[in-house]
Amino acid sequence: MTTPPAHDVHAAWLPPEAFRAIGSRRVFVSGSGTVRDEVAQACAQYGGSVVSGEGPVDLVLAVSTAEPLPAVAQAVQGTAGEDGFVFARHDGVTVVLADDPAGLLYGLFHVVRLGESAFGAARPAELHRPATRRRMVDHWDNVDVHPVMGQVERGYSGGSIFWRDGGLRDDLTRVRAYGRLLAASGINAISVNNVNVHATEAHLLTDRLGDVAAIADELRPYGIRVHLSVNFASPIALGGLPSADPLDEGVREWWARATERVYETIPDFGGYVVKADSEGQPGPFAYERTHADGANMLADALAPFGGVVHWRAFVYNHRQDWRDRSTDRARAAHDHFAPLDGRFRDNAILQVKYGPMDFQTREPVSPVIAAMPGTSLAVELQVTQEYTGQQRHVCYLPPQWSEILAFRPWGPGGRAVADVATGGGGLVAVSNVGDDPYWTGHPLAQANLYAFGRLAWDPRLDPAAILDEWIDLTFVPVTNVDPGPLRRTLHAMMDGSWRTYERYTAPLGVGFMVRPGHHYGPDVDGYEYTPWGTYHFADRDGVGVDRTRASGTGFTGQYPQPWSEVYESPEQCPDELLLFFHHVPYEHVLHDGTTVIQHIYDTHFAGVEEVAEARLSWEKLAGAVDPALHDRVRELLDEQLRCAEEWRDQVNTYFFRKSGVPDARGRRIH
Amino acid sequence: MTTPPAHDVHAAWLPPEAFRAIGSRRVFVSGSGTVRDEVAQACAQYGGSVVSGEGPVDLVLAVSTAEPLPAVAQAVQGTAGEDGFVFARHDGVTVVLADDPAGLLYGLFHVVRLGESAFGAARPAELHRPATRRRMVDHWDNVDVHPVMGQVERGYSGGSIFWRDGGLRDDLTRVRAYGRLLAASGINAISVNNVNVHATEAHLLTDRLGDVAAIADELRPYGIRVHLSVNFASPIALGGLPSADPLDEGVREWWARATERVYETIPDFGGYVVKADSEGQPGPFAYERTHADGANMLADALAPFGGVVHWRAFVYNHRQDWRDRSTDRARAAHDHFAPLDGRFRDNAILQVKYGPMDFQTREPVSPVIAAMPGTSLAVELQVTQEYTGQQRHVCYLPPQWSEILAFRPWGPGGRAVADVATGGGGLVAVSNVGDDPYWTGHPLAQANLYAFGRLAWDPRLDPAAILDEWIDLTFVPVTNVDPGPLRRTLHAMMDGSWRTYERYTAPLGVGFMVRPGHHYGPDVDGYEYTPWGTYHFADRDGVGVDRTRASGTGFTGQYPQPWSEVYESPEQCPDELLLFFHHVPYEHVLHDGTTVIQHIYDTHFAGVEEVAEARLSWEKLAGAVDPALHDRVRELLDEQLRCAEEWRDQVNTYFFRKSGVPDARGRRIH
Questions:
Q1: Which fold has domain B16-128?
Q2: Which of A194, A386, A419, B323 gives 20 to 30 Å between its CA and that of B508?
């Protein structure tokens, strides 16, 4: 394992110092492999040693079936299970026992997170198991530079760490380092190319499969399986068949053979990811087949080898006529997929975006998540900040994700979204990583990736606690500086940053208002008269989308009770989603007593003030963090403030010009 | 001379049939050269002959100093002058006498235009002279394909006829054919690369000068001189100098040497075109020098060889803050250039866009045109339809140009814009030609290029008469079809098409409202909150830009009387420019008695109806024109209608949502 030199690539949440507690001790490690290598490297740096099981020992890291185990380990009870581990502190020895190498790896990183506190008071055996078997990140990386989207679609961190100028990178050092970071957060699956599978990328399935195998080789030591986005029309494009009909025997046979060859090359291959009949991608509709037919065809090809297909539910009409008020993009996924419940194979995972639209700062939870009890659903989140500041703005997303995961579609007594996910396909996210030295463009955006892994492992973790973990790992104090101010400042800047971002952008759940195409910065009417189905319908009297059954598109009817009723009623609907579900007058009074128009003004002024405060707080940390990192964040905060002011002024001016209502507090609106 | 095969490239206004009248006669031609080649080719096709001056003759085409001249020619009096010719019909012989080969060429094409009528009744000698010495088209063609703008910036007719994939085309047949078409319209100067001079294109001045020479060789037979757009920073980029300061001796010396080398290679080289300190291009401001300093430096380098520099006046702040209401882009050119009047060299031509903004469908005439009596001004028009339908919409522009040329900035008794231009640098236009088989994408857009040449020759020509010429040349009847219906239909479709386009797009001179970037189709607020200085300031009460002295930006003060007063007054201001100069309530009553808001609705419904009528008219011409051309125009009319409906609905909906005023006639507004 090679860690890139510190001056070249930032160590993120695995700086050498994070291994000091382990590296300064006597460690027993069973077997060879990644965990032994990690420990040996840490001990070489901090004076500890890898010891046999017979002498004194401070830390045991062992697969439970290993022989011989130190005596102390035999006192620790518990069956770890796949990917799990048992952790205990017993007789002055810290013990991690796992049933498999992956579990041992997660145990090692657990000790890393605990640091010195792993070697303190005795602890009874704790069983750590991931909530789901598969914890996945998707990359929207292109092999060929796309003329519009570039090397990484919706990527804000430079080029791809896998691909460059039409081919696999020569040096895959960073791929391995990335695998190590992902493993330390709990991730164990990755798809390596864009779901919009262009011509070159389609060949990764066949003649360019060697590139995928090379990536798999780098990630395997960290327990990460590689998945591949494939083009539904591959039998035509690659196989020369006249059709890609999922019920055609020749087509099915083609996929079976192609999949067989994939597993001959990559025996632990994870499976396929498919975006079909979506935004121009081919799909089963061309053959008058259902999406279940499409997904099942691939599931059947993968089943003999234990693979899965992730089939995305992001299907809607992206050539809608804005004049057509009867079509509602929010309805589309439910309309298409709910009727198919129960018709997907066990190894077909329906990958559903968290909201009915497209990764907005605020959306209701997608009704699809509550509508398909007979289908294995994965909930898709977006770590890459497409609509949340594009890694130029601080926007710590786990508070949003936790709200989504804690949402109970069937009401207070029912299951939560987290339960649906853990009982099904788990969590999947679009990664925010590129070849930027800080991995994620904005150094603080690393926290989103780390936290996603942790939530995929355990969706009930507290976002603030995860942030603590990330801060302590990433900013291990190297001098005798009090870590308190840094930690407090980062919490102040990050804990509420998603809500801050919400305040200065599109109000009350109405969404979008971004510049078309690149989606950065404000343009209130940017998507208002386009085919994309993303409208706010603001006029001189009011704003919002009527999605009620009573007078609107009927989208509220896609939810079970009580939400169907709650969302239907402008009085009961939560304020933060009001304009998603209702078209209301500007003078409509929210639950806190302010009007909609005054809320727009107030939140936009407040959001900018919060960014200005964050910027000042960060200034005061000069000297407490690495100067290069401090500079990078400072420059980005300047841009965030500029952009937040632009949002404030455009949104406020737009609504003042339309409504004619002055700000009650007399602040400047241009 | 090779004319491309008819099935490959459309003959435009020079089909073989246009030469029938000449080609079936006995023609005396003095000297060798292009005119003789043209006549010989026509006679080979239509049975006529090139004859000596001694026998019977029907047509004499001669340079007046040629020996021996047929006797009949000696009876024709008149001094043609540079580029001019004398035309007469005498004793049954048609006579064209010129003083130079170029004049003879224009005389030949005059006879082509007249066709059989050139050989009818006797005509006394008519003297034909161009209104200006230089009649120029600019190409915004890139050598390297630009990642955003493509091979031709604002090009809607395919690739460049000069350049392809980073180099000169191997086959320059079309360049020569283009030269022939230009000469037949009266053009005699061309610049061959984009005024945004990117890295590769900068080298055309030095190590890639051979490419320019090759183009000049193709165009020289048709009397067309080549000009080159150069980068102001060339001394740095190409010469390795530390500066491009126009008053630096080393810099001046560099330009002198570079220009000397150009003329060594291309002795009849025309000169330079420069866009400086504009939209990111370098310029003299970096050295705290004036634009006169910059232009004069290049003029001095060109003067020894008789060359000219075209220096564009398109200088404004394109990074304006939309919140800053004190800055007015319309003022910029006058603010920058008017104080420099009298400080430009004689061979420095200030090239001024016709309006103060940027080639909108409707703008007032630029006040710069009236502000610089001591400077040689060229008026720049845009044949390429950037803001007028991008050669997907029928938009015959000469009525607009004629209005501009006939405008009298000093009032009814004063000189017209045409007088300023013909007394100075003449007319320049951005060409609409590319490698499309019809040259201009939309076959009917050929008429704009033809008409521009004719107006550059004589700005007082009537647009409808020019259209007649173009129709008769382009659609020479090959069968016994009555040409009347075709001619009537084309007039009905084209004469009013600019006003039709105006009706369904941005109202009352307010401009823009186009999709940012590509500028096609509507987006009312697309540029409203951007740095480009192009705003309409619509709110719930009214719309328009206050450019008065009384309460606005003071732009009206840049005009001489009476226009300064006329534009200042919302009552006197012409309706079609009302929103360019004034912000008025929606209920403001226009001179025709309708309100602004009702005018918006009415014109947008009417504009679409006019397009629908044009489409129906064209349908009826099936069979009367070449089927491929008919199909192309039909498809484009479908798109025009779709786009016009989109304009109508977006503009009407936008203003209905803002104003709340219903259409008085109850038509459907979405």
A1: Chitobiase; domain 2 (3.30.379)
A2: B323
